[in-house]
Predict the structure.
Amino acid sequence: MAYTLYYWPGLQGRGEFVRLALEEAGAEYRDVAKDSDEETAAALVMEQMAPAGLATPPFAPPYLVDGKLVIGQTSAILLHLGAKHGLAPKSENGRLWVHQIQLTIADMVTEAHDTHHPIASSLYYEDQKAEAVKRAADFRKTRIPKYLAWFEDVLTRNPKGPRFLVGARLSYADLSLFQLVSGLSYAFPKAMAREIEKAPKVAALAEMVAQRPRVAAYLASDRRIPFNEYGIFRHYPALDG
């Protein structure tokens, strides 16, 4: 049975982490944001968030429908897909470790979002630009280096070698780290050009993921929504440096 992925139309956002896992797995899925016009897709997302009789409604997209299961939260969706499609270790320790890494990636994604919306998501960037400049400066100076150093250390400590974050096989955390590096490089090209040089193993992992056949085919297709100034990773020159 094919999956159905619900996410807001016109942007990668947190839904892109799920798309990458589905694409790498070669899974059949319907992407509501891509298979409908923008107005219809947005309406479907809202209508399906709390269908009648569902005891576990998702708070917000992305959420994935798998048969009778409705799973919200990117990390929870990936935990589910990882077990079903061999994108996580079979051992409990391994699965939990991949999940921990994914949650850390999610933390950094939130911090990246908050550089352009430091006060409230309900306000426009232009309404909080001065605060965004200050928040972004700290993000570039302290947070990007700290996170990249941790991912670099995880790769270094992997007893099976530094090619993957966990074990000797690709996991959904590797796919997500690729997306994180790609998004940060779009949003902060100057800062990332400096910082990624200090994390060569992270850079090598991102390049390796981009070259995997299914991922490469997806990235080259029209299914991959381009980065833009409506998603999590936004390029505002005033916030880069």
